[in-house]
Design goal:
Layout: H1 2-9, E1 14-18, H2 25-38, E2 42-44, E3 59-62, H3 69-76, E4 80-84, E5 104-108, E6 123-125, H4 129-138, H5 147-160, H6 174-185, E7 190-193, H7 199-205, E8 213-215, H8 225-235, E9 241-246, H9 247-253, H10 257-263, E10 267-273, H11 278-287, H12 302-309, E11 312-316, H13 322-331, E12 336-341, H14 353-359
Parallel strand pairs: 1-2, 1-4, 2-3, 4-5, 5-6, 7-8, 7-9, 9-10, 10-12, 11-12
């Protein structure tokens, strides 16, 4: 710990990168206390946004499949990375470019075979990441932090997360749904996410407060969202569980709605229906503009389908319907399906179909 503190004291632009091995009440507490003790901006790894309060002034963002270049450049300026509880896999390191391999690295992970695998750390500890952070939290605070460095990282994240209302001709822009959901839940409760382009809106605009949970799958395999939501709702019945799933993902495993109805699970399933396998469509448009093959979907009316199962079915087809429909869904004690007719033109939080075609 003395050697770690020496590196930290000599650092001007440190970052604490938190991974899945901190996914416990003790881990979250130790992360919060250590970060505040030494005024360390906190980044979290892929699908781990709930490790650290996203409204905390030290929250610097989430490294995921759609991390933008500006954030990668900012993180690349760090002169010390404390990677605690993460394997430093390909997604969380942006294909092994973040942190820069030349940056001083302290890597803490319980499996010694992981340490030094992708990066050569300055210091490596095969130990409990929680115990490491508890020791760090108990140590004397480092020299006064560079507030400008902290402001750059956290300010960029806060700016990215600010929803600027936008409308579309072909449906509701899903960012509006996510931003309203955050307002209504105050970032609490459990959110499960399936896989697909719609998740970019979730990771960008949903702010998870202390005590909130996010359940996602790192491999980005479709079909996870609804079954995970049923399990979460049964484990935490006293608070709302929200499932965010695309139309394709719901068609894969949405039949688990039968279990939710049978068990009277309190959950809201928000189906982002743009009539397309959006991620594949995005790749098609980028590589072969206008040549669409096999990505259009013929979807049912998901609200009527919910009624057939015995659940409450609601529909959002216009911007003005977002807040009242979500409020009604969250107030309902039982399973709800909210069918959102979303914009395909706004195919992700960072891409527009027309722009993809123009850049080819």
């Amino acid at each position: 710990m003395a050697r770690t503190l020496a590196l930290l004291s000599g650092s001007e632009r440190p970052v604490l990168l938190a991974g899945g091995r901190l996914d416990s009440p003790d881990g979250r507490h130790a992360l919060r206390v250590a970060a505040r003790r030494h005024r360390l901006p906190v980044l979290v790894t892929n699908k781990r946004q709930d490790l650290f309060d996203n409204t905390d002034p030290l929250y610097a963002g989430h490294l995921h499949l759609a991390t933008q270049q500006r954030q990668r450049d900012l993180v690349g300026r760090s002169d010390l990375v404390l990677a605690v509880g993460t394997r430093l896999d390909a997604v969380s390191t942006q294909r092994y470019t973040v942190p820069d391999p030349a940056t001083a690295l302290v890597h803490v992970y319980p499996d010694p075979t992981v340490l030094g695998g992708a990066y050569r750390p300055r210091l490596a500890y095969a130990c409990s990441p929680v115990a490491f952070l508890e020791q760090l939290a108990a140590a004397p605070p480092r020299a006064p932090a560079d507030d400008e460095w902290v402001r750059q990282l956290t300010g960029h994240e806060a700016e990215q997360a600010r929803w600027r209302p936008v409308s579309a001709h072909d449906g509701v822009v899903f960012g509006r749904v996510v931003s309203v959901l955050t307002q209504l839940t105050a970032g609490r409760g459990t959110v499960t996410v399936d896989a697909g382009n719609f998740t970019s809106w979730v990771h960008r605009y949903h702010r998870i407060a202390d005590g909130g949970r996010l359940l996602g799958i790192g491999s980005s395999a479709m079909g996870f969202g609804v079954p995970a939501g049923v399990a979460a709702a049964l484990r935490r019945p006293d608070e709302p569980t929200v499932v965010l799933v695309g139309d394709g993902g719901f068609l894969m495993t949405g039949t688990e709605l039968a279990t939710a109805v049978q068990r009277r699970a309190r959950m809201v399933i928000v189906v982002a229906d743009n009539g397309s396998y959006g991620t594949i469509r995005q790749h098609q448009e980028r590589a072969y503009p206008g040549r669409v093959a096999g990505t259009d979907l013929a979807n049912p009316d998901f609200a009527l389908l919910a009624h057939a199962y015995g659940a409450l079915g609601l529909t959002i087809g216009a911007d003005a319907e977002v807040e009242p429909v979500l409020s009604k869904a969250l107030a309902h004690y039982g399973p709800v399906v909210v069918h959102v007719r979303t914009s395909l033109a706004h195919i992700s939080a960072y891409q527009h179909l027309a722009d993809l075609r123009r850049t080819r």
